[in-house]
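Deliverable D5.2: sample structural annotation.
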Amino acid sequence: MSLLVPQTFWDRLSLLHDSLATGECWNDVDSIAVPIDPPSEDAAFTKSSAFFIHLFGLELHDSLAILCKGALHVLATDEKCAMLKALQEEGQSAGLKFQLHRVCKDNHESTHAILAKLVKSQAGRKIGCLEKIQFQSTLALALNKAIQSAGAECIDVTSVLGMALSVKDGHALATFRKAAVVTHKILKHSFVRLLEDAFDQAKSITHEEIATHVDECCEHPSKVNIKSPQGHYESCYFPIVQSGGKYDIRPSASTNGETLSDDVIIISLGVRYNFHCANMARTFFVDPVESVRLNYSILLELRRECLAVMLAGRCVGSVAETANSFIRQRCPHLLKFLPKNFGFGLGLDFRESSLIMNAKNQRKFAQNMVFNLAIGFHDLELTDMQKADAQGSIRKLSKYSMLIADTVLIQSGDEPPDIVTKHSVEWKDVSYFINEKNDKDIMPPQGNHYTPEQVESQSAIMSSRLRERSKACAPDRSSLARNEKQAELMQQKLSVKRSEKSSAWSQQGQLSSRADILEVDVYQSGGEYPRDLPSTEVYVDMQGQVLFAPINGSQVPFHISMIKNAVQPDPDRTATYLRLNFFTPGQTASKDIAPATSKLIEQHGHNSMFIKEMLYRSRESQRLTAAHRMIQELRKRFRQHAAKAAEEADLIPQEKLVKMRDQRIPRMADLTMRPFISGKKTTGTLEAHTNGLRFTSKKHEIVDIMYGNIKHSLFQPCENEVMVLIHFYLKNPVLVGRKKSQNVQFLTEVVDASVALDSARRSMYDPDELDEEQRERQD
């Protein structure tokens, strides 16, 4: 973080000063004094931190601010005063002064004298303080003594200050929107994708593992393809994931270590961007019954009713009153499941205590306030009658909850509020059906009357299923005879292959011994297979690099190096297909085949049987599509790993870089590196450390060069040249991007003015273009 621009600082200071000057909402205080403690590991975010960040953009630890009529006085160290000098010089406001007072940590008498003079001459008789916070800094203790010596009265303004900071300006609203966008994308691309993969692969995963993954995405949004500077985003709290019948829809809930259950799943997460917080929560349903869907539709109606009253000028408590009134009229039996609070104000504090949306809060909504609207039902009952036709784990639930929370921006006048967390809440987007119903589900329930066409259609479906079941359970005699004949032919072929194998080994002799065969051993026995391996599905073990293909009810493992390609043909009306093609002897050598796999096929090609192709058919498109996607991803990783291993085969490992800790790091910025790490140009910063150099590109790519690995270093000054260049010829090559390099250059252009022509369109006869191509050929 850095200081605010002067114009933003003066605008915010003027608004705060004008509000204080009226004195009505500030309990008629003459001034407010806000100290802030030095930084510590266990320090919590307080209202004083919010005050300093709101005005300056930084916390300015171990400082003191006194805002009185006509002036803002800040007591801070020399370093902080020098930093704040820019705000004092570059901007001004009519009738308002910004004065800096330097204090020395070792000279307490001077600090006491400055404070005593300020309190006596400027602060007035009533001083607003943050009495709910226990300050421990020297400045805070000196302030208390100065107030007592002056005989002034100290009045608590904690909640009043929170209200004053709750109305956001354009700069803060833009920050809120960025935090909301990242929150939505992390929910969509991190949690939802992880949830769907767990369902598709029937994978066991705990709530804590999911929350940890989501929390890492909050800290590093680049994991979900969000380009942002490092360190600007962080999680407001550890994400909350709940399922399996144990729910708590309060903001203080926590994630447990139990396994994710495919029933009713609640996720809550919040992202903080530059100290501004956004929050959202969603409920996902797996194989829900009809009563759950009806209750969720009521929850959506309740949400719309609450949003309709969040207008500028209305009471904050009207949200709770509207919610209770709506449920009392529409569904009185659900009234006992409503929470007492329906959200809270958001800001620099994640939860603004003075803006909690309950029936007792009589404060008013104002334009540009930001709220977290949280609507839910807690511990709804699920009776045996309601889940009579249930499928999956929802049959085990006796109680469940549901929660929808969003970050909402109050608009002007009668305009409806703006929901800045845009993730869908529609039933079709939050419900999953992964377990098929059995035959009895197609029978009409009692009391319902179907048309003759519907009865005929139901009968056709029933008879079709019965025919398939009878064929599977009672094969006729011709099928048995055919299977016996095929088994006999298989035995004959196996005996022929055994004889060919023995003759082949005897002919090869010493030219091809068993020691020359490069075998791939991932599992020593079937007991080492993954525990969650399904028996009738195509399964991909990403860690073991193995594809399990079901054959006659048994899972057969195939190493990913043996798979030539995986194709999904166009589906028909009833099913989806997946075709697996394998490398076999006699095929034309493909560029994708690994050298070890080619040797393995050559060794075993004369005496083993190979599978060339397999085709799988499924009525559920999700499972085969997920398997196809994972196979493609695993093949890509395997090829990349093989290419990287071949590139790094003869690389000599370098020692680890030792960073400088106790002194200033020599650093040169905006250098261009050759060869390029990626793209058409690589620019970044070169740092000199204890035992080597580290180059960090603007894309956060890192290349380390150890001093001991440098054989020659050449320096080219900018005499008769347009660039300054330093060239290193290394003893051993290093990996730059994906290629080895023994020559590394760092350069920068030294000209009065330059025009970037990289992105401009040039003619093929442009003389500058021809000269540049000629120089590249010479290099």
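Annotation notes: The longest strand covers residues 723-736. The chain has 16 helices and 28 strands.
The annotation will be released with the project's public dataset once the embargo ends.
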